[in-house]
Amino acid sequence: MTGLTHHLVLKLEQRDRLSDHEKRVLEAAVVRVREVRADEDIVREGDRPLESSLLLDGFAARYKVLSTGRRQITALHVPGDFVDLHSFQLKVMDHGVLALTPCRIGLVPHAVLEKITEEHPHLARLLWLSTLVDGAIHREWLTAMGRRSATAHMAHLVCELFVRLGAIGRVQDSTIQLPITQSELGDTLGLSTVHVNRVLQELRKDGLIRTRGSELTVLDWERLQTLAEFTPIYLSMQTERR
What we know:
- This protein is of the alpha+beta class.
- 43% of the residues lie in helices and 21% in strands.
- It is globular and about 55 Å long.
């Protein structure tokens, strides 16, 4: 399958098998495609979306901004992720979603999602699972920010992104494309840009990663996992009946 929902299907099939009919239902759910520039909001805090946004290509981030203008990124999204599936039920967005790079977005009307929940319960459960995994990722990030060292926190994020990108075929020769600036990493990890630079230097010096432009290569996966205390259970990548 090579349609608009290709990456979503790859991700869902890490967790359970989809029928050909369910794949067609997902493909038909995307009614239009939107191009979003880097640094442009996909959805804003306070919006009441009538559609949910499926990330087809690019990197996006959920974020909150304080009255001082300081920003905290609360989630990173890769192709195949619904960035605001929860808006189907919550109605009003309590945070914004930003395109970190140029993005292509597939828009799925909430009326279509409602029909899926009524007519395709297995598919609805898998989409529900996606929102549960979003919550699990939030718990891991909160734990990392509160209790891990900055170096271990960065290592954990790298491990997570490798697993998530690997699930959609975006890891080649232990290398991922990570077109995220050090400032954006700082907003993700709760660190200054200077501290992010220092942590990346430490990981490179220890022979754990190599960076070249937007490319990040893991040189020693086992040691990186050990440093991060990373176990992918929270990503629910095991295939079983849902």
